[in-house]
Amino acid sequence: MTSFVPSTHSNGPGSSGANQNSSDIENLLARGWASLPSEYAIPAIAPSLDEARSYCRRLATSHYENFSVATWFLPKHLHQHFFNVYAYCRISDDLGDEVGDTRVSLALLDRWEEELDATYNVIEGAASAGALGNATLPAAGAGVRHPVFIALAETIQTCAIPRHEFSDLLTAFRQDQTVTRYETFDELLGYCRNSANPVGHLVLYLCGYRDEERQQLSDYTCTALQLANFWQDVSVDWKKGRVYLPLEDIRRFGASESQIAEGVFNGQFRDLMRFEVERARQWFERGLPLVKMVNRSLALDLELFSRGGLAILQAIEKQDFNVLARRHSLSGFRKVELAFRALAGRVALGKEPGKSRGRAE
Questions:
Q1: Domain boundaries, the chain
Q2: At the top level of CATH, which class does the domain 179-355 belong to?
């Protein structure tokens, strides 16, 4: 496979490093790639499509999250597309969250978006030339060298995914570098629109759904999942300098940020978390109709992730809403249990939902 020697070039228009000279940007990029897993680096020479596919598959199936559990229930022909999208999301998130230096993260995210722009430029150029469908085109495209984008180009072409679904995620990861508090719940929802909802849209595109109704229902589920993760990670996020609990809610219930810092849990903080947990549960409920509007394989995945999010909320409740004591994560056994419960629900469905809508499983 192609050797992964970091490429540090980044001078795209509109980048956050626009006011820095190229030497400064290169130094930031070099520091950034050095702080991340070596396979994240952009290679000097683009890999082949087969190498790129293998890269994304390996990253998706070996990562610490339970991605492989979800793919058990997906049609085999969709696995590679999910691996490609997952790899993009995983690395994008780590560029923003695992570096520990705002300037470096912003430079890396800019460089990453240059790869995204170049990928779409190649695809659009191929479409104009009547050559769309040539899966090796991105490897020959100027500036496209990372295996994620070589593989992702095939997915973008096949599923006709708009660029903004990928770039919106980068907007959220940049926001994490500069915004650490949210005054209102509406402001937090604005963040979720970029950080969580595009993931649901991408899944729908991969499965052949493009309509606004399904995307809106997906938004409810993805936002709910994001909220559930926020509420279980209150102390973890504090250590990163971030507070996702709306400040207006903290004041309303008589709680304070100092309680998070000091781990002081009392009745006021319990009431605050009870309110936030219930609100997240309501968002899950709003998204439930989507399960009956998609094919059976996707319905199972949606149910699995919804059950997982609801299980997080239940775990917080069982601990009397004390999210300051420890992180309420799911055990490996609990994740498998949820998967089998979702599978039982699939069997109970019998007839495939969405069959009349012309979506093949």
A1: 21-164+173-178, 179-355
A2: mainly alpha
